[in-house]
Structure formats: structure tokens, C-alpha cells
Give the backbone structure.
Amino acid sequence: MRYHKIPDETVRRLPIYLRGALHLSQQGVKGVSSQKLAGLLGVNSWQIRKDFSYFGDFGTPGVGYDTSTLIKHINRILNLDTVHKVALVGAGNLGSALLAFPGFEIYGFEIVAAFDSDKRKVGKKNSGVTVKDISDLCVLKDHGISMGIIAVPGDAAQDITDRLVNAGVRGILNFSPRYVVVPKRVKVITIDIAMDLARLPYYLPAG
Amino acid sequence: MRYHKIPDETVRRLPIYLRGALHLSQQGVKGVSSQKLAGLLGVNSWQIRKDFSYFGDFGTPGVGYDTSTLIKHINRILNLDTVHKVALVGAGNLGSALLAFPGFEIYGFEIVAAFDSDKRKVGKKNSGVTVKDISDLCVLKDHGISMGIIAVPGDAAQDITDRLVNAGVRGILNFSPRYVVVPKRVKVITIDIAMDLARLPYYLPAG
DNA sequence: GTTTGTGAATAGTTTCACAGCA
DNA sequence: TGCTGTGAAACTATTCACAAAC
């Protein structure tokens, strides 16, 4: 079923499947059924098959999926088959943790630049990246950086967003607790850590 | 429309509305319309009204919503009207950033205990919290701690989850890139930072 | 005139069940 | 026999449009 609009929810799940396939591949597992993959990732097997069906035939009936083929396909669909250079803004506690974060690598992300407005942080090395002043953000264009991570306090978020957009960034991962306005061509994904914790008590039985 | 099952998506959005109401309240704004709130938060006004309608009448036609009433109502619905004590497991880069994170406070969360398996970290103070050995996790019950945050590498995630569940925790915020198995009574919310970044390139126009 | 609250219409997503292939 | 791929059905959520309330 190749000629369909891809549901957003399917796109959201593809990185999960990729993570599972990479995990299995690292362990030397060559093939996997939708059922096995589902068990590993905590989703349903028919959901996996349905999601894959939007893109064509990934697997072999009676056998399952080849892990390396799966990785190749999902990487291509998600545009992850080239290394993506990322700029980080905000070298505070969260920003430093993100610079040291080992999880970006498997998807081909590399944080190649870091910025902060605090003069005391500027010039210092942080996980191998030298922190630059925020006014140097405009140089991003010349370095092939198309994505930015915002790890600044809420009050600064819109200003930093504008600077990133002006610097040519087309995708933003926003860790600040604010809605930020961008032109339609720019995609923002917001992770509001406290907000996710905030809905947890709703699900706890009385207490 | 009081006698309806609440959509999960509505529950997911309630903390957003709460954040907006708190923001306005701090600025001394007493009343707000669904339209104004929507503009502030980047959602639709009818979505807000629809979401609120599941819980009863929050506002006044022709006038709007009273910010402090809104805060009170949402806090009660989300079970946020008491302080929640939280245990953090994993005092590495991410764990330390979470201990120092200022955003939990507005929702009434307090990280009162931290644990790590690394003997070099145990005993040290980290943002005012003394890191304890992981084997001391079982004391949680006696301290009224009902929620846990997992900030450990993937390989350790299931073990830590089991320990938290055994210690009586009923809600878990999981930052590890793994699906973890829990009894049905326990709710897990997973934030996989790299995964969220991983779907960003999909939305970037060719390049 | 303004804004809420909500039934009804639309859109989107998940689940099922099974034909077809290895 | 075992597993994929997918239409169709069931379910869930979003959007609209407007009556009722202030």
C-alpha cells in the first residue's frame, strides 16, 4: 500500500522499531518476526506490520524481517542515512548532560557546536565541544548544521528559537517549557520533562 | 458532559493548560479566554473548551476562565494538589541534571532521594540530595515515595524498574531507551530523548 | 457583543481477520 | 505450518457550528 499518506503516529513509532532492530543486530540476530519485535518493544505485532505496510514490503511471509534490511529501510524513511550535525544552545545542567548523552550516536546525530549567553561558560570545553557565545549562532549556515537543541530557561526560548531559525536551522528539539513560534517550514518537537511527570499522578490509584 | 471516559489525549494536554494558567497567574492575570490561552500555548481554543468540558463547567460564558480556579481544578484532576515525593535512580550526567532541574517544583514534585550503583558517587551530595547505594532502594516505602525516575543506561533499566516496583513505587518516569515490564497497577511514562530527535529529520524538506 | 459548553460531523488510528506467499 | 501485508470494521479524537449564558 505504497500510495498513502503516512500517519504521524506511524512516524512517531518508526524510531522505536529502528531502536529494536539495531539492538537485535548488535546481538548478532539476523532475522525477527513482527511478534518477537513487538514483545521486545512493548507494542502489538499487527501495529508493526500495519506501520511497515505503508512503505512497501519489508519482510518475507513465513519467515519475518531481516534486521539489517529493516535498519536500512527505516533509516532511509526517516532521513537518518546521513550524519546530522546539531547545535546545542544552553550549556547549563541539562545542556551539559545532553552534550555527554551517548544515545544520539546510534541515530547518526553529532552535536558539533554549543552556545551559551553566560560569559563564564564561553570558551570552556564541555564533552569535547567548545562553548561559544550566543551571538556567534549565525555561523551555523557555514557548517552544514540543520538542527538545533534548545536547553535554555523558558524566558529565553523564543529569542533563541528566532536566532536558530535565522541561522538556517530547519528542525528544533525544544526542552524549554514554552511554546515557540516558528515559520511553517521549520519543525519543532518539544520535550517538556516536568509536564510528562505531571500526568503520572493522574494514573496512580488513590494515594 | 460529566459522565464520560476522559480521552488519554486530554489528560496529556491538561499539564499544558496548567502550565499556561500558572504562567498567567504569576504575571497577575486574573482571567483568560480559551482563545488567549490557546494563543499562549499553541493549541486550538475549541480543543481547550472540549477538554475542559469533560470535567464540568470551568468558565463563565461571555467572560472566560478565572486563572486561579483553573489551576485549582486541573491540580485536583491530575492529583497534583499534594506534594509528591520522587526517588531518582542514576546520578550520572542526566540524573544530576534532573536533580538540579527547576521545573518540577511548579507541579509539586520533590526529588527527596537519589540512588546509584557507582560506589564513587554514593555518599556525595548532589543538588542537596545525598546519593545512596542502590541496595538501599527498599527503604522507599517508609518515606511515602510513590514515584520514581529512571536515569540509568538501558541495560540496567529492567533491574531498576523491578527494584522500584518492589519498593512500592506506582509511577515511573523512564529516561532509558528501553521498554520495561511492570505489573498492571504500575504506570510507566517513557521519555526517549534520542528517539524524539530521531523523527525530526523526517520532517525536514530534502537536505 | 463576547465567550462558554457541547452535540454532530469529520478525520484519524487501531484492531481484526484472513488471503496469499514461503 | 508460520508469518506477512492489508482491506474492512471498530474505535478514538479533532473540528465545526451554534444554542445558551453572561
The two ends of chain B are 48 Å apart (CA to CA). Helices of chain B lie at 8-26, 34-41, 45-53, 67-77, 93-100, 154-166, 193-198, 200-203. The longest strand of chain B covers residues 109-116.
